[in-house]
Amino acid sequence: FDYNEVITMSILFYEAQRSGKLPQNNRIPWRGDSGLRDGCDVGVDLTGGWYDAGDQVKFGFPMAYSVTVLAWGVIEFKDAYVDANQYNHVLNSLKWVADYFVKAHTSRYELYGQVGSGITDHLFWGRPEDMQMHRPSFKINAQNPGTELAAETAAALAACAIIFKQSRPGYSRMLLQHATQLYEFADRYRGSYHLSIPDVASFYRSYSGYNDELVWGALWLHRATGARSYLEDAKRKYQQYGQGNTPKLFSWDDKRAGSQVLLANFTGEAKYKGHVANYQQFLSGGGAVKTPKGLVWLDQWGSNRYAANAAFIALAAARVPGIANREQMIRFAQSQIHYMLGASGRSYVVGYGNNSPTQPHHGSSSCPTPPTECSWNTYHSSGPNHYTLYGALVGGPSRTDSYTDHRGDYVSNEVAVDYNAGFQGAVAGWFERLY
Ligand SMILES: *[C@@H]1O[C@H](CO)[C@@H](O)[C@H](O)[C@H]1NC(C)=O
């Protein structure tokens, strides 16, 4: 498999998800400016960021998770990005969203966490450039807090601050200042963010609650600042909130597996290494469900994404000094990545490899450019998407490896910014092991 090509394409997928005024160096010829009035309803400039998936809502919580995980992969596997000549491109992607989060953090205890309404947005099938619907802006503040959202955004900005520390020290310091404030906001004013932003409840409600983000956020702030107090705080909360259990999956919702790896690495303590080992044993051993062809099948909706996340966590865990069963983790990650790239008999990455998906559930790429009209008829048509959404990982197979390349099937054929985050990091991590 050509890992270099996969990394290159995966970054292009993130560029295709851009909202706002596109830069001169936009590399997606079929994309233009969009969402230019985002934030007008509240008098704030909320242009920028990424569209979530095949739709055009800007959901701050999964967007922030995607940035944290992408950034983690860049920090951990920088050599792979450099070797693939993609380091600057991935930094541009991260900065695109970090800039948006900075704009959305309008004061110490105020953060905009969503633009666009899930229900209204989903009534429209078309290009973001042609959106006509009202796109309301939703925020959290001290009276209506949102701990998951504030803590994850803090983690994302802290991880970006690490990455930009050398190349843009002033920018990095500014990001870190926002991250520090956001974490304090998350910790001080506690509450589930879907109660403050009810529109998100049927889309990205955090079922795991906010305890996992409090630990995860503190760990990223520790890493970015070097401050011992954040590590002590993370350890205390980890203990208090029982974060050492063996999770089923690592995802935009549940950060436990990631925190376990970071804690094992930062402290070297046997306790955390044990928790890491338990999860790896679950993945590689008999605990987790596997499809007949070997994909670890953790959930139905976007099965590939959960498998990719597991592969990424395995490759990060394999880097923890003194960790046991390193080779097993690496082999596990390899098998998952190879499944998605074609070992299963087909590629699950749009535009890459053998028999790749042609009908991703993605409004923007499915539509022709005006004046040709785009509508639900386009959605229901049987042909391929009008443009190739290079690099997007589609949802994935059922637990029996069955899959149909059908636009209407968002469970198996949607794409999303969180799908590619762990995936891209896992490919980079695997690629880096090869030289
Ligand atoms: C572990 O910590 C070291 C030292 O800070 C760092 O270089 C490495 O990237 C970390 N790895 C993980 C998986 O956290």
From TrEMBL:
Q: What one GO molecular function would you report for this record?
A: cellulase activity
A biological process from GO:
cellulose catabolic process
Question: What positions does the domain Glycoside hydrolase family occupy?
Answer: 3-426
Catalysed reaction(s)? Endohydrolysis of (1->4)-beta-D-glucosidic linkages in cellulose, lichenin and cereal beta-D-glucans
Residues of the active site:
405, 414
Record keywords? Carbohydrate metabolism, Cellulose degradation, Glycosidase, Hydrolase, Polysaccharide degradation
Q: Quote the InterPro entries the UniProt record gives.
A: 6-hairpin_glycosidase_sf, 6hp_glycosidase-like_sf, Glyco_hydro_9, Glyco_hydro_9_Asp/Glu_AS
Instruction: State the family it belongs to.
Output: Belongs to the glycosyl hydrolase 9 (cellulase E) family.
Annotated protein name in UniProt: Endoglucanase
Annotated source species: Ciona savignyi
